[in-house]
Amino acid sequence: MTIRTAILRLLPLWAVLSSLMLGMGFVFLAGAPPLQAYEDLLRGALADKFGLATTLVKTTPLLFAGLGVAVALRAGLINIGAEGQIYLGGLAAALVGLYVGPFPQIVHVSLAMLAAFVAGGMWALLPAVLRLRRGVSEVITTLLMNYIGLYVVGVVVSGPLKEPRAPYPFSPPLAPSAFLPTIIPATDAHAGIIIALVLAILVYIFLEHTPAGFQVRMVGANPSAAAYAGVNVGRTVVLAMVVSGGLAGLGGASEVMGLKHRLFDAFSPGYGYDAIVVAFLGAGQPLGVIATAGFFGALRSGANVMQRSQGVPVAVIFAIQGLAVLFLAASLAVRRRMFRWSGRPTPSAEANPS
Amino acid sequence: MDVLRVEEVTKRFGPVIANDRVTLTVQAGTVHALLGENGAGKTSLVNVLYGLYQPDEGQIWLRGRPVRIRSPRDAIRLGIGMIHQHFTLVPQLTVAENIVLGARPRRPPFLDLPGAEREIESIANAYGLGVNPRLRVMDLSVGLQQRVEILKALYRGADLLILDEPTSVLTPSETEALFGVITGLVADGKSVIFISHKLDEVLGISQVITVLRRGRVAATIPRAEATPSALARLMVGRDVVFQIPKTHARASEPALEVTDLHVTGNLGHPAVSGVTFRLCRGEILGIAGVDGNGQSELAEAIAGLRPVTRGRISLNGCEVASWPPKARIAAGLGFIPADRYRLGLVPDFTVAENLVIKTFGDPAYTRRGFLRRQRIAAHARKLVAQFDIRVHGVQQPTRELSGGNQQKVVLAREVSLSPAVIIAMQPTRGLDVGASEYVLRALIAERDRGAAILHISTELEEILGVCDRVAVMFGGALMGIVRPEDATSEQVGLMMAGALHLIPASEPP
Q: Which tens digits make up the pLDDT trace of B449-500?
């Protein structure tokens, strides 16, 4: 690996660091000492049991959905629909948690998770088929299906699934056997994070070490070459999209089964959209997604502490997140310009004439 | 008088030196050829002249004055015009509209299209360009589109024209016409920098020849003192064997039979109409023709990447016209596509991965659902050694390889599958002499092994040198099949231009 490739690989890191630097300006404008505020943020996110638990809780849905978006990304698809897939996954998990059973916890949890994966996957299948059969851009369809997903859950919890006499639309509690166990006593931290981490490693193995993953990466990197090499591009696109939606669906399930234990109306504060940022900053790599999901989880968790101690509004965190995306996009444009240098794919191609 | 003097110009891209202290002088009213292999630095040098790149060192003088050319706008203002290899025209607009596009209006703020049309017509007549400014560019042939590019430069007042590989898209007769235009331009006192890697063209048109090799000027010699073999030696730094030795074909039973094949192109037009031929084991059948006469569609239809409208494709006796690509690969079809970067390779994949993109699912490389990374790497190391592919390691991204080495990756992968039929489309495009020779030798070796080879190329010399029989494709149909030893370049050239139609016959012995 040359120094140049190393720099290019680390572009997301530069983007994050630059956004944190610029974020200090915002903190300053909010009237707080930047370094002190960042210290509080870091401490709030990681230093004690409760901060750490909050970080894990916030990381979990980002990790699930970020993995999902990343799988699609590696297949050359832009899945904007993680939010809707989260809702469908949450709904499916809630239905299994409410109406199926009773089972031993391991069985019940597995069943609910499986249902969530299938539901999220189906929610992504339709855009994949539309793209394949009719050439409709999956960016548009997945985005629009987010609203359908959100309102399907809204309708269900306002009507058939509504807890009688509840002040807000939410469902009755799930059967306790469908709860994800708590991993840090006396906190909200639940086993969802462990499942997500295991899945990240499985996704990594899938992409890098299985023929199906090879196929997905080939279709993502050069679909024409994949077709040339005999790969069924359409089938691969559908497979990647269903896995992508399924993983996002698990994010919804873990929110319902691990944190809220009920199905709430509008239960996701936009995790599915943040997941797009997580996947892009993680360069579509499962291990990168772990890092970025953890980073954003920690930011969100620490932001509350920073707000309390320094009076810096939580919104600063969202500005930093936005800046990171902006910096990444800008650095990608710079990279393109670097490639254009010589009129060849890379300058190094000229370095070693045959 | 010197129009242009380039003095000690050096251009670096990071650690790579594209131009190393290049010095040359272009005299008014002459054609100055820049000759060199791919990667010799021709294109980066003219991009410096046209303001697309800034030189790191050195000085450019124009008509005796030192100049700095910061952008193409500067270059145009200084009277430098560039005709790129890939045209920069808007097909939907007329010739005149294309020419005034981006130029400073003569009577601002009005466009004055009729005035421009008159002016363009008079320039066109003066230099024998024969282009009607009112026609839409999309209706013009490639040769005429190139003239529009020349007109565009002249309209902007260029008196130094840079033509980057202008003949690569032309038929032999169009090339001749272009040379006529160039001769007229220099007779009028304009100067031309003519970039090519084709010796005969350079010898045919230029008065002075500068040979570049690995970014440096190997020599500048007047036309009168140049010989083809001397130029070739200067270009590659060693003697080049032009004739690739090969024995007579021992063709036997048919491996690929195409019967009355019809294929639709991307624009819905009939791209291939009624092509019939038979290709036998142990022979190379060439398909000559100018780019865009249905060759790509023919190759893609045989490979299964494009549906067949009508007709039959028989591979080793099996009717495969409706088979998916995978099944055709399994039945012994190899394909070296023209665009290795878009079709033949996954540039972001490693060399090792690219060598197994067709076979990664085979038991040799996948066991119990997992890729056998060690085996894949070992396979790659073997092929890298066997085909002398220059890499830092088999885990290097293929994107970083030179064009010649990328082509060797494709070639190694296809040949290593021992296919019964190989479609080789433009296998030497963009390669230097050494790499081209290597690829062609490998194809002949495959033929001698018993493979049937369909060699599609626009390089006539290459086709006539390598193939056992040559079919000429024009307008989606075969104009005839000839034997290279019986055919003259002129005859084949006429067929390529659609002016001669032989009865398709001539079966292999």
A: 999 999 999 777 788 889 999 999 988 899 899 888 887 766 777 777 676 7
Per the prediction, chain B carries an average pLDDT of 87
Is A43 part of any domain?
no
Check whether the bond before A102 is cis (ω within 30° of 0). yes
| B370·A224 Cβ contact <8 A | no
Q: Give helix A211-221 / helix A233-254 axis angle, nearest 10°.
A: 110
Q: Which alpha helices (H) appear in B417-500, and where do they start and end?
A: 433-449, 460-466, 489-496
Residue A332 contacts B where some CB pair is shorter than 8 Å: no
Which residue in chain A is spatially nearest to B335 when comparing CA positions?
A228
Chain A residue with the nearest C-alpha to that of B373: A209
Any domain includes A10: no
User: With bands split at pLDDT 50, 70 and 90, how would you rate the model's confidence at B243?
Assistant: low
- Token readout for B220 is 């500048």
Query: Hey, of B399, B416, B417, which one would you mutate to test binding to chain A, going by the most A CBs within 10 A of its CB?
Result: B399
Architecture of the domain delimited by B241-332+419-509: 3-Layer(aba) Sandwich (3.40)
Domain ranges of chain B: 2-236, 241-332+419-509, 347-417
Domain count, chain A: 1
CA dihedral over B458, B460, B463, B469, signed as positive or negative: positive
What CATH number should be reported for the domain whose range is B2-236?
Answer: 3.40.50.300
User: For residue A125, is it within any domain?
Assistant: yes
Domain of A93, in residue numbers: 49-338
Q: How many CB atoms lie within 10 A of CB B105?
A: 12
Asked whether the predicted pLDDT for residue B359 surpasses 90, the reply is yes
In terms of pLDDT, which residue wins out, B274 or B230? B274
Instruction: Report the CATH number that the domain containing residue A152 is assigned in CATH.
Output: 1.10.3470
Interface contact B369, partner A, CB < 8 A? yes
Question: What pLDDT is stored for residue B509 in this prediction?
Answer: 37
Out of A4, A210, A221, the one facing B349 most closely (by C-beta) is A221
Mean pLDDT of the region A300-324: 87
Contacts of A236 in chain B (CB under 8 A): none
Put simply, whether B329 touches A (Cβ < 8 Å) is yes
Inter-chain residue contact A350 with B358, CB threshold 8 Å: no
Mean pLDDT of B320-335: 95
What are the phi and psi torsion angles at B156 (to 5°)?
Answer: -80, 5
Interface test with A, best of B333, B346, B411 (most A CBs within 10 A): B346
Chain B: nearest CA to A209, how far in angstroms?
5
Q: What are B374-391's pLDDT values in tens digits? A: 999 999 999 999 998 888
Q: How many Å apart are CA B320 and CA A125, to the nearest integer?
A: 32
Report the chain A residue with the minimal C-alpha distance to residue B372. Answer: A209
- B245 band by pLDDT with thresholds 50, 70 and 90: low
Verify whether the Cβ–Cβ distance A353 to B37 is below 8 Å: yes
Name, in order, each residue with C-beta under 8 angstroms of B486's C-beta and a sequence gap of 6 or more. none
